[in-house]
Amino acid sequence: MNSETGIPNGYLESIERGLAAVRQFRGTLTAGRLSRSASLARLRQALDTAEAVVIGAGAGLSTSAGFVYSGERFLRYFPDFAERFGITDMYSGGFYPFPDEETYWAWWSRNIYCNRYVDAPKPVYADLLRLVADKDYFVITTNVDHQFQKAGFDRRRLFYTQGDYGLFQSRQPTAQMTWDNEAWVMQAMAAQGFVRDADGVFVIPADGRVSLRIPTALIPRSPEDGGAVVPNLRVDDSFVEDEGWHRASAAYAAFLRAQEGRRVLFLELGVGGNTPVIIKYPFWQMTRDNPRAVYCCMNYSEACCPPEIEPQSICVSGDTGEALAALLQA
What we know:
The chain has helices at 10-24, 36-49, 59-64, 71-77, 79-85, 90-93, 101-117, 124-132, 147-151, 182-191, 243-258, 280-289, 320-329, and strands spanning 52-57, 137-141, 158-160, 163-170, 179-180, 195-196, 202-203, 229-233, 264-269, 294-299, 313-317.
């Protein structure tokens, strides 16, 4: 709760729960005792009987949907960056010291385009929506690709804690404001020589010629003061939590309050060890505090839970998209 405004802050409250879980759960984790098929059957039952579903999504969910940062997908948009600078994936490229702003923004326009404005290669998000569409649900995610909204999830039930590829903010913000970057991204892609295919998706032209730089006139500037901008991503304490962010944070806090004591399914999808205090640890704590709650951890290779909540937990290892598809078939 913000002491000045009286508005609940779901982000800070989640971190507080996560820190409490760190103190509470100190033992070795368990992967559960059920087989994958038995775990999926139990999850299907938990979905059917849940009065509410809280979805916590991490990078593993987008990876399952085909948003991989290396390999063929990387080379489809960045072959010239790979050749010129030796960059091997989209993640590490985001930290590369490019020689000038024109090159920096050529990189980021491509990165934002293929991770925000291109549809996911696999129907993982659509399948998840089919599973929870008739439920009272809410989504908290550390992903910044906005795939939940693109798949049709109710935007009033989404909380993107770490930002959005589709927004810019001032590098040195004086006000907590962001602005949409879609029109700029499309201009920047075209200015580099990318062309649209039959489906309207930007691709490298047949002759393979694209520019490593955007025109200087296209370098984005802040509407506040004309200063430098950056993508709205939580990388340091300059991250802008705008009005929409605070509205979503308050909505998440209010949703959790309304579910206390109910049959809640905490459905954790692809959350790794980078920021467990935002989703994973709070889910453990809220499951422990509610004997009617069920916690499910779906993760490719790290599906586990604390022994203290094992009777209330379901651990599903393997590809999350395949598991969701199996649930739909069931």
